[in-house]
Structure formats: structure tokens, C-alpha cells
């Protein structure tokens, strides 16, 4: 898939605000600062469509990004940020649960975990919840470039064991800095979205498109 258009569409907090064009949607879920923004930018070969933020927990809505006229990336609020009130975390949780269980356009959830660390309790609870409800899922281990090559296999093993991943479960180690895992992840995304083989490229004028700040 040649990416020649990528744009921010809306920050939605209610179902009536979601796009109504029926395009497949790919949700991105993970802890605050796990690298969701950087992953989006690497997948579409853009520097600043999704800007990383120095303030964890800044993303408070479902942020929609349209890729060509083919699909949406839907960026979720980061979970596990302690300074967010219990009331706000509850509200986010209800919003995300309603979306995940009722949104018919949802074709895949990318659960992102930090490869440098063992999955947190929040990571494990989210993974268990997604699998319990039978949602299509790929676990993406981010920041692989931060781990020495000789230790990556050990870190991958720790993550897979903590999340009780089995043979056949989708798992992609990923580096936004180096682009490692990009082609494999695009293949999974487009297969679930039903839009064919993916090779992400960007047109030269893409840097002029509107940027939008979100938290990764």
C-alpha cells in the first residue's frame, strides 16, 4: 500500500462523533509514553503527523487519523498514568470499552508494550480483556532499538510469557527509530483491514499536510 495521504480527522469522545464512511479502523492501545505517536509516524513515513508529548496522559479522546481513503488509525488514551484522577480513568475506560465492544468498523487492536520492561499489570489486564472478548489483536513491542541485539530475544521471551502468548498469536517487535518490524506490521494491518499488501511510502509533499499533537 502506497501512503500518499495521511491526515488528522477528529478527536472523538462520543459515538456520534465517529466517522460514518465505514472505513476499517485499527485501534492503538497502550500505556502512556509507550510510543504510539512515534509508531504512527514511522508507519506512514511522516515526522509530525502525530507529535509526541512531554506530558503523559495528554491524549484524552479517540484520535482518528485517515490513511489514504483506505483505513483509520484510532489512537486511544494511554492507560496506567497515575496522575490522572480515578474519575477520568473510569470515564476513559467506559469510552474505550464501548468502542471496542460495539464499533463494527474495528478490524484490529494493536496493543503496544515497552520492550525494555516486563509488561505491567495494566498491560496484562488489557491483554486478557481483549482476548476474553475475542477481539483481533496484535501485540507490538516498541522501542526495540533501545535493547542490545544480544538481549532482545530474552526481552521478547519475558513479554510473551507475561502475556501468556501462544504460538500463532500475533506479535511484532518494533523500532520507530530504525523501522524494524514496519513491513511485518503493515502486512498484518492491511490483511485485517482487507486492503491488500502493504508497503508504506510517502509522497514528497506530505510534509505540508496538517499536523496534530497527541500523546504517545
Automatic annotation (TrEMBL):
<dbReference type="InterPro" id="IPR027417">
    <property type="entry name" value="P-loop_NTPase"/>
</dbReference>
<keyword id="KW-0132">Cell division</keyword>
<keyword id="KW-0479">Metal-binding</keyword>
<keyword id="KW-0342">GTP-binding</keyword>
<dbReference type="Pfam" id="PF01926">
    <property type="entry name" value="MMR_HSR1"/>
</dbReference>
<dbReference type="InterPro" id="IPR030393">
    <property type="entry name" value="G_ENGB_dom"/>
</dbReference>
<keyword id="KW-0547">Nucleotide-binding</keyword>
<keyword id="KW-0131">Cell cycle</keyword>
<feature type="domain" description="EngB-type G">
    <location>
        <begin position="22"/>
        <end position="195"/>
    </location>
</feature>
<comment type="function">
    <text>Necessary for normal cell division and for the maintenance of normal septation.</text>
</comment>
<comment type="similarity">
    <text>Belongs to the TRAFAC class TrmE-Era-EngA-EngB-Septin-like GTPase superfamily. EngB GTPase family.</text>
</comment>
<protein>
    <recommendedName>
        <fullName>Probable GTP-binding protein EngB</fullName>
    </recommendedName>
</protein>
<dbReference type="InterPro" id="IPR005225">
    <property type="entry name" value="Small_GTP-bd"/>
</dbReference>
<keyword id="KW-0717">Septation</keyword>
<keyword id="KW-0460">Magnesium</keyword>
<dbReference type="InterPro" id="IPR019987">
    <property type="entry name" value="GTP-bd_ribosome_bio_YsxC"/>
</dbReference>
<dbReference type="InterPro" id="IPR006073">
    <property type="entry name" value="GTP-bd"/>
</dbReference>
Amino acid at each position: 500500500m502506497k501512503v500518499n495521504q495521511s491526515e488528522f480527522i477528529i478527536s472523538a469522545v462520543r459515538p456520534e462523533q465517529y466517522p460514518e464512511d465505514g472505513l476499517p479502523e485499527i485501534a492503538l492501545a497502550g500505556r502512556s509514553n509507550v510510543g504510539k505517536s512515534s509508531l504512527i509516524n514511522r508507519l506512514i513515513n511522516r515526522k509530525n503527523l502525530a507529535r509526541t508529548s512531554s506530558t503523559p496522559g495528554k491524549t484524552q479522546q479517540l484520535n482518528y487519523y485517515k490513511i489514504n481513503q483506505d483505513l483509520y488509525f484510532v489512537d486511544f488514551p494511554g492507560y496506567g498514568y497515575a496522575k490522572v484522577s480515578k474519575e477520568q480513568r473510569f470515564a476513559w475506560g467506559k469510552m474505550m470499552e464501548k468502542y471496542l465492544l460495539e464499533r463494527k468498523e474495528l478490524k484490529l487492536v494493536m496493543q503496544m508494550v515497552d520492550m525494555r520492561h516486563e509488561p505491567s499489570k495494566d498491560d496484562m489486564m488489557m491483554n486478557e480483556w481483549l482476548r476474553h472478548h475475542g477481539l483481533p489483536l496484535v501485540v507490538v513491542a516498541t522501542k526495540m532499538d533501545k535493547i542490545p541485539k544480544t538481549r532482545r530475544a530474552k526481552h521478547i521471551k519475558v513479554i510473551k510469557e507475561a502475556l501468556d502468548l501462544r504460538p500463532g498469536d500475533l506479535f511484532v517487535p518494533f523500532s520507530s527509530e530504525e523501522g524494524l518490524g514496519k513491513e511485518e506490521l503493515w502486512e498484518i494491518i492491511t490483511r485485517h483491514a482487507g486492503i491488500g499488501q502493504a508497503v508504506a511510502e510517502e509522497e514528497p509533499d506530505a510534509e505540508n499536510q496538517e499536523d496534530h499533537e497527541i500523546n504517545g
